[in-house]
Design goal:
Blueprint (H helix, E strand, L loop, with lengths): L5 H12 L29 E6 L5 E5 L2 E5 L4 E4 L10 E6 L5 E5 L4 E4 L7 E3 L3
Antiparallel strand pairs: 1-2, 2-3, 3-4, 5-6, 6-7, 7-8
Length: 124
Amino acid sequence: MPLKSPFFKLLILTLFLFPGRVYADIPYQLVYLKNYSAPDGLPSSRINYLMQDSRGFIWLATDKGVSRFDGQHFKNFTSADGLENNECFRIAEDNYHRIFFYCNNYRFVTMKTDLYISLTHLKK
C-alpha cells in the first residue's frame, strides 16, 4: 500500500500544514467595483431591475425612470420622454434587439427605432 510509506505520509502532512505554498504561484485577479448613486447620474438609488443588452449597454429600471449606462455616463428616460410611467419594474430585449420596458401601470413600452427616439405604447 503506497499510503503506508513514510514518504507519502510526510507529503500529505506537508500539504495540510502548508497549503499556501501550493497555490502561491497562481496569479489572482483584482476586481474593482464602483458604487453608483443619484449624484453620479442615476435617477434614483432604488433599482428594480438590471440587464445588459446585445450592444453592451446596461439598462436600469428604477422607481423614477429608466437609465441606460454606457460604461461612463447615464442617459435617463422618464415619462417626459414617452415612458408610460416613471416606475419601471422589468427590462427585456427581443431577437430583433428591441428593448422592452414593463411599467407600473401594467403596460409594455419599447423604443421605436433607436436609443434617442421617444418611447411608444405597444398596441394589440
